[in-house]
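User: My instructor asked us to take a sequence, write out its structure as tokens, and then describe one feature of it. I'm not sure where to start. Here is the sequence I was given:
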Amino acid sequence: MNPDEGAEEALRSLIDRHDDYEAAVEAERTARTTLEAECRQLRWCEGYEAWMEEATAADLEQEREATRADAAQEEAHLEDIKTIERDVEAAREGGTVEQLRAEYRRARTQLADDRDRDYDRAVDKVIADLVQEETRDRGLPPVFHRARDLFADITNDRYEFTLDRKTGTFRACDHVYDDSFSLDGLERLFERLQGETPSRSGA
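Assistant: Let's start with the prediction itself. The structure tokens for your sequence are:
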């Protein structure tokens, strides 16, 4: 008989409940001893009447019945524990537990491999993005970098001024929404700034 996947957890739960039951029995035994001692002292007190013990005795009998019911239920739990122990032992002898553990190890190894592969891909992408960012503006005239700085100041660094080398158009990259769009008409602005640069540098 093969136990289900929760057999060992059920076994631990039943053992914990057995420990709680034993603690309750010990507490009931201690309470009974204490009560009997106090009743003996009460009988020597002035004004003692027998009826004074009746309520306490009734409560104690009620607790005793509850303890007996718990004991009967505990016997059933103990039988369940023995059954599960036999099932686990039979599964261990039949190799079922070992197979489950082997499958778990294989799944864990596969997960680690997938995680490492995803990590390598992420690292490669970050490196590629850094290389692209460092080299995309190489060879552009200083006026372009000046225009980029001015554009960043005007937009409070939200937008970045870039040049699409494939289409030869200027674009604005939105750092908030991670998007970009073409800037029509900025070619003329770029030419104007480029035309002003020599006169300022020669001044």
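For the description part of your assignment, you could build on this observation: The mean pLDDT is 69. Try explaining in your own words what that tells you about the chain.
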